[in-house]
Design goal:
The chain has 172 residues and is of the alpha+beta class. The protein folds into 2 domains: 3-60, Winged helix-like DNA-binding domain superfamily/Winged helix DNA-binding domain (Arc Repressor Mutant, subunit A), CATH 1.10.10; 67-163, 3H domain (Histidine-containing Protein, Chain: A), CATH 3.30.1340. Helix content is 41%, strand content 24%. The protein has 6 helices and 6 strands; from the N terminus they run H-H-H-E-E-E-H-E-E-H-E-H. The protein has helices spanning 3-16, 23-30, 34-46, 80-89, 116-128, 151-163, and strands at residues 51-54, 57-60, 67-74, 93-101, 105-113, 141-148. The strands form 2 sheets. A 4-stranded antiparallel beta sheet has the order 3-6-4-5, with helices on one face. A two-stranded antiparallel ribbon has the order 1-2. Strand 1 and strand 2 form a beta hairpin. Helix 4 runs antiparallel to helix 5. The longest helix has 14 residues, at 3-16. The mean pLDDT is 90.
Length: 172
């Protein structure tokens, strides 16, 4: 299979996948090394394919008619699941986590959390690892970009985050 054919097939596989696929999984599908897949993904991104890399693997992000809002929040590590569940339970998808560090600047990590199962998997990975949450760099202050099908849903999410004392101030 030629490189361009494989890259086109990677797009199709990602488009048809309901979950992120790791570089290792894609390498097995196409019978190439993981490094070849990493290079293919880089070339596809350079060609304006909206492939995002999450902690669970690669996904093709297809733009829909959605609304987005960034919430500035603060809470303890023990409240991570509660905060994320508030968003997904009320119709939102958490796209990322962002911290503004005084020295390192803005650090963004793609999350793509759409439901309670994703929240559970994310929290399990975070708490079983020996690493700290990204928000630990900024005294628990951080941002989440949230996507929803309407502004009304984002307003409900904002209200629920405020009720639970998670909002550090009004969202952007």
């Amino acid at each position: 299979m030629r490189t361009t054919e494989r890259q086109n097939e990677i797009i199709e596989v990602l488009k048809n996948s309901k979950k992120p696929l790791s570089g290792t999984v894609l390498a097995k599908i196409f019978n190439v090394s993981r490094q070849v897949i990493v290079t293919d993904i880089a070339v596809l991104r350079a060609g304006n394919k909206n492939i995002i890399s999450t902690n669970k693997g690669y996904m093709l992000h297809i733009e829909k008619d959605t609304c987005k809002r960034t919430f500035y929040v603060k809470h303890k590590d023990l409240d991570i699941a509660n905060e994320l569940n508030i968003v997904v339970d009320n119709g939102g998808n958490i796209l990322d986590v962002i911290v503004d560090h005084d020295i390192y600047g803005t650090i963004t990590c793609e999350l793509v959390i759409k439901n309670r199962s994703d929240v559970e998997e994310f929290c399990k990975s975070l708490f079983e690892s020996k690493n700290s949450s990204l928000m630990s760099l900024t005294n628990s202050f951080h941002y989440h970009t949230v996507e929803a099908s309407s502004e009304e849903i984002l307003n409900v999410i904002e209200s629920k985050l405020k009720e639970n004392n998670f909002l550090a101030w009004k969202s952007k």
